[in-house]
Amino acid sequence: MFLSIEKAAEVLKEGGIVAIPTETVYGLAGNAFDENAVARIFAAKERPYFDPLIVHIAEFNELETLAEEIPENAKLLAEKFWPGPLTLVLPKKTSVSNLITGGLSTIAVRMPKKQIARDIIKLAGVPLAAPSANMFQRLSPTNASHVAEQLGSRIDGIVDGGACEVGVESTVVGFENGIPVVYRPGAVTGEMIAECLGMGYEIRRITLNSQLSTLNSSLPSPGLLNKHYCPSTPLFLGLPSEVSENCGLLAFGELPRNLRVFAKVLNLSEKACATEAAANLYGMLHELDSCKLSRIFAMLLPPVGLGNAVNDRLRRAALSLPN
């Protein structure tokens, strides 16, 4: 199941699908120019075809094989934040399969910072379509064991690159009438984007709404479904006034006084650091989810910087609970 980067590249060249580590989360990779490999990604994840995939590249010049046009603002962002946790949504070349893009005329592309990921892309010799290596709408994987648990029997192998450093999915940015739009928050914040572009106005952001939760139409970007990143245990936001038996708490910073009522407590960051919280988010949710709790309560972070990204994932995980 576990592969070297050289063997993983061979499998990818032959049309296989392999889980690879990035700095954000593990991705389920396949040759972006091989429709059969891309279809296998959707099938393994049980992901609907309307939900676009992110394509990963190792060098900037590879972007020319995927994007028909690269706006100046996109170039500036790539120069500043690539390699790194930033995805750009750009007009696609006609040679790019509509299967990858959910039928859209745009393609989502990023260059991962993790060297292992870029080495695999280089050895495979092609850009790799690589959504998160998990079952659709389930918790994202931040180590190889998370992947093995959810997808082990469904894929052709896993490259173990240790724990993911960032721990939440990439920021996704598109351009509407020339205005940058943050479709999904991540480690590259709206403030960082505005500073890079020297813009005097706030970056627009797509917020959660009922329209984006429908399962019958294409989304403008990956990661926009209202129900996403979910543990199997029902998740609620905030601290409850009363706690029923066998509940867990995902805390942040200073702990509440009534800890004894919780069966299991994990703290994303005792020192209230959003970067540490993001890196711990999915690992701690996986741990709480394995404890056979009746429900999980999660404290939100201050809504600034990377705290927005953590809160975004928690809200999506809590919006629609399992039956």
Characterize this entry briefly.
The chain has 323 residues and is of the alpha/beta class. The protein has helices at 5-13, 35-45, 72-81, 98-101, 115-124, 144-151, 190-197, 274-289, 306-319; strands spanning 18-20, 27-31, 54-56, 86-91, 106-110, 128-129, 171-176, 179-184, 204-205, 235-237, 247-251, 264-267, 295-298.
What would you say this structure looks like, in words?
The protein has 323 residues and is an alpha/beta fold. 28% of the residues lie in helices and 17% in strands. The chain has nine helices and 13 strands. The strands form two sheets. It has a nine-stranded mixed beta sheet with strand order 1-2-6-3-5-4-7-8-9, with helices on both faces. The chain has a four-stranded parallel beta sheet with strand order 10-13-11-12. Strand 7 and strand 8 form a beta hairpin. Helix 1 packs across helix 5 and helix 8 packs parallel to helix 9. It is globular.
